[in-house]
Amino acid sequence: MPCRPHGLILVTDPGENCIAVVDPESRRLVPTLSAPIPLPARRMPDRLVVHTALDGLDALAAFHRGTPLDSLPGAPDGPDVTGVGPGEWPGIEVARPLGTFELFNQFSGIFPDQGPYSGGTLVTIIGSHFSGATAVFFGPRRAASFSVLDDQTIIAVSPSGTGAVPVKVTTPGGTAPIGCFYYVAWPTLTGLLPIAGPIGGGNIVELTGVNLSTARLVLFGTAIASPTAVSDQHLLVTAPPASGPGTVSLYVISVGGVSNRLLYTYAPVPVVTDVSPSTGSVAGGETIVLTGTGLTFVTGVTIGGVPAASFESYSDTLLAVVTPPGVPGPADITVTTAGGSVTVPGGFTYTASTTTAVTSAPDPSVVGQPVTFTTAVTAVPPTAGTPTGTVTVDFGDGTPSVNVSLTDGTATVSHVYTAPSAAIRTSRPPPGRTPRPSSRRRPPPRWSPPPIPPCPDSPSPSWPRWPPRRRGPVRRPAR
């Protein structure tokens, strides 16, 4: 009758290939690399998980030479075997290498012990008394196929199924369970962050979804990366490099199968070719437009080292930025995207708000007398510093304008007027406009017709009454 003689602890290398087993009863360490079939094992709390310090070399040879075994980083509940050679493990005796049949008689189980719902997983069943086996069952279903290699080994293909099911072997002597097989659901991706990264890769991408704990590979197009499962809903993976900018399909391959596909973009390094306008108030709050290339996945903008109040990318070539407060003078603009960053030295110049006052002496003055005009330009608080530049003075009498440089915020110029009622105009601030008279006119009085005199025949006392005039010949009475 088939059976599983021992439930042993497996020692695996970083590739999860079994290199030794530990018998919990005899506390003996048995090397297994002489076995013809790799025996991958899961990292479980009740199993010893170690790896060799000599990657790429024969682990068994290193084992016999006394090469120390190091604890695998992150291995749960694994004993610390760093610096401990063969025969030096407390309470564990290292056995001599055994032959293949002797080795298989030391432990039993299902390797691997998990696969997708759809089945098709090639499983190695280790036990004893397998000769003449007539059937292999995964729960209530028969294996899709199986082959008996020897009295201790069966190779079977899992059928479709769900959940955790017992694996049983039927022989002429009866049916016995050998282990359990776990059906793993297909992985599903629901999101990734960030959705873009540099062409050279190296950035961490977080994948979210379900059934991700058994993920083995993440593909970025044709590039392959190995993920770290944070939980069944989260994966962390380092993006591999790409040959150039573009969008690729990203998907996960796990024990349960292949996930759906999401899009990931390899972004180019940004380029800024123009800033408009390139000057603005130190108070900030003004919108400037940056043009260039690679401006789609913008993650940050600073002006003079201060983060922009807000920004928005309208296309790969157009970026709108609201300036933060600054100090007078030129400031560098730095744009950071998923593909990298670019700095425009002195790309924006902050200007201070000022007020201008003009005085004259003497005041009043007469024609032909020299007049000195003083223009004072003052920065509006809280701006620090003294305004610089020039002031243009137009005397208003037809003479040419004069440009005067500011010294400590003031400019002085003299002029002699030759015409009366001359006016002074300065370029800062512009002269105030004289209020125009109201364009609205008083409407004319409403017209009313003159009074109509009463009819002569009316009995109005104001109209003189005359005797009616007779028509025709007038007859005179005879004398």
Please describe what this structure looks like.
- The protein has about 475 residues and is mainly beta.
- It contains 2 helices and 40 strands.
- The strands form 10 sheets. Strands 17, 19, 20, 23, 24 and 25 form a 6-stranded mixed sheet that branches.
- The longest helix has 6 residues, at about 60-65.
- It is elongated, with a radius of gyration of 49 Å.
- The relative contact order is 0.07.
- Mean pLDDT is about 75; it is low at about 35-105 and about 420-425.
What is the residue-mean pLDDT, rounded to a whole number?
A: 75
Structural class: mainly beta
Please give the number of β-strands.
40
How would you characterize the largest beta sheet? Answer: 6 strands, mixed
How far is the first residue's CA from the last residue's CA? 186 Å
- The residue ranges in which pLDDT falls below 50 over 5 or more consecutive positions are 33-106, 421-427
Q: Rg to the nearest angstrom?
A: 49 Å
Give the amount of beta strand, in percent: 35-45%
Number of helices: 2
Q: Helix coverage percent of residues? A: under 10%
Q: Which word captures the global form?
A: elongated
